[in-house]
Write a structure and sequence with these properties.
11-stranded mixed sheet, 3% helix, single chain, mainly beta
Amino acid sequence: MSRIFIILGLLFASCENTTLPRQCFLMTLSDALPVQFWLNGEETYNEKIVDGAHRFCFCSPWKCTDEIKLQFEDSSGSEYTLAVLNTDSQIIKELQFDRSGNIYSTTLNPNVSPEICDEEVSLEIQTTTQLLSDHNFLNGSWVNRGGGGVDWTESGGFASSTLTNVSQNVTKIFTLSAAFENKTYSIDWIFEVTSKTGTSSLSFRVHALDAGDNIISTTTVQGLISSTGVYTGTSNIDFTGASKIGISAIATGTTFTWAFRSDYIKVFDDTSTVAFSDCLSVRNEQKETILIEYSNHRDFADLSNLNVSPDPTYYLRIPATFFKQRFPQESEVIELSNSRSVQLNAQVKAQKLLSIGPMPPYMHRKVILALSHQFVTIDGKDWVKQETYELVDSSRNSPLNQARIWLTEKDYIKRNIL
């Protein structure tokens, strides 16, 4: 997959044409997210060609110290990963999405990922097809291979075995048939040592076997275990010519007892990109940009509150300035019969102008939704949206618009009542 962005300054550029094959997935992505995602099968803003409109790439500005919080809803039960790609479409960072019911969330912190800071990157939400359905030993499909060694037993979703001495220092290979293709697969595994005696060491192995139970390859995925505990990891193993996967353990030493079990063996097939963003410009310094913090007590705009306290806070950085002030006033005055005027009540508010630079329409919608949250903070003060968000007309062929809105300082409304 290739996306080419030629950046002018930090935000805009001419876009090169790209052809991106896509598939369709069902997923709910909020327009109020700090980063805009498009589902597979859709063109991003930077990719789409509109007749009569000049093409400008928009790279959303972010500082290295910003927190980029993401969330989406999906009922498939799949596992999802956030992949961060550089301008060469190489993955430079991956984060796992945490799942709570149908809600998936994760947070990208460029400040703790030096490979992201001072880069132009894009984001992809990816999922990997799982090849095995009996990965956690529940269906009784695993079989002890013939030959020497101690048997494995399945119980309660675990595959367990015990090695007791030098003559019983290796298990049989516990095998499962699967529809492997001639390629490398990603294997996730958990292996737990529940008890041990002696001073020997233990190794856990994964095997690729053909239909006749002949071993094609053996990979030691965890070696030199010397104590009880849980061991987990991911290994990439070539299954060319294989039709079965197997696991085994072997102990080295003289006198020992090892009791252990495997919680699961997950075999993952191809990784698919489910949704993706346009470019993000991550910099140590971003001049004339404003960071908006926003949160809500309730679900809003397809963002879930997750029923947690404090409320999840999102952060959106936009090209803008925020310094011009005004003080709108209201008053009610009556004139008495003696020609005197008496003020019955008065109110003074403090407002600041959020003056927003050129952005695509989806970014303006994002800002409007962010400012419509119950709690909005800019520059350490709380603000409320009372005025209209006004788009400033651009040239006839420009797809970008500026905008402006007066925000009211939440804690500065002064009233005087007679």
